[in-house]
# Entry
Amino acid sequence: MKELFQHAAITHDITVRVAVSFLPEQSQPDAGKWFWVYHIRLENGSEERVQLKMRHWRITDGRGLISHVDGEGVVGETPVLQPGQTHDYVSGCPLTTPQGSMEGYFTFTRSDGTPFEVAIPYFPLAAPATAD
# Structure
């Protein structure tokens, strides 16, 4: 598992794992466009049912410009995870610089409706260097 997912964080017995890859076929460096895909795995290690409700991303580009992205669920879903269950999804991030980073948190609710935040680990976005 560690080979696939390079980054992980555990909060309130919920593990968030991240694998990130640069996509050269979706990038246009000559036009100032770089694109990464990231795979998130959510693991419910708690003893109760939880539901992912919201996401908050802090995306930093190579110039230090920070963008905040908030939204409901992930890729159109608000998955429910029973104890021991996992949920995977894939999304992407474009930048106007060849490097940057992402981090943030998910807001989950417990069975009784109580919200809590779960950290998304920091992960770098780095395009491979190319020789001219």
Observations:
- The first strand starts at residue 7 and ends at 11.
- Strands lie at 7-11, 14-22, 34-44, 50-61, 66-72, 80-81, 86-95, 99-110, 115-126.
- The mean pLDDT is 95.
